[in-house]
Amino acid sequence: GFFNRVTRSLHKAALLTPPQNITILSTNMKHFLIWSPVAEIAPGEVVKYSVEFQGEYERDYANDSWIPIAECTDVSVTQCDITEDISATVPYNLRVRASTGTQASLWATLNGFFNRVTRSLHKAALLTPPQNITILSTNMKHFLIWSPVAEIAPGEVVKYSVEFQGEYERDYANDSWIPIAECTDVSVTQCDITEDISATVPYNLRVRASTGTQASLWATLNGFFNRVT
């Protein structure tokens, strides 16, 4: 047969398997691309990794090109801090490949697009919203109370924040909500709302749970509360 040094190196390249289990880890407002290590072919051979990204601009206007991430080119770790590279709120594509001194694997691409905005929303959904929200009225005082939310990681502190909405906010202030300062990032599962609902109008109240890294969706009181009725 014939020998072709080009096809030979391509043939050889296929021996080094592409990285597997590519995923995104988001923590403390940072985003990391992570993957499983690739086994070296020859003993003592060092496998290195390179990561590239592709944003909307590259896909639509730059001929479907990919941009290398300089600090994640030929690195021996199996993770890459992509926070700075995916700073726009557009869907990104990411890919990684393994290489040794003599050959490179095929590129392995992240399954689906990554968008840092939807990712944080997706992550937020892991922390469940507070349940059993109700009003307890006693001795001319009114408290919003709710059931505690279980932490996701052991030792994680869950805190709660309460907001209210009166007739003015609903009708004239763009349906906005007002945080209750003394019930923002508190670890108790109740909030004295007496001062905040002093007018004789129907109020809406909502509460959410949060940890250092994420927040739940807001949970709203079922129906309006009016201190007179």
Automatic annotation (TrEMBL):
CDD domains: FN3. GO terms for cellular component: plasma membrane. Residues 18-121, 129-229 form the Fibronectin type-III domain. GO terms for molecular function: cytokine receptor activity; interleukin-20 binding. InterPro entries: FN3_dom, FN3_sf, Ig-like_fold, Type-II_Cytokine-TF_Rcpt. PROSITE patterns: FN3 (PS50853). This is Fibronectin type-III domain-containing protein. The lineage of its organism: Eukaryota, Metazoa, Chordata, Craniata, Vertebrata.
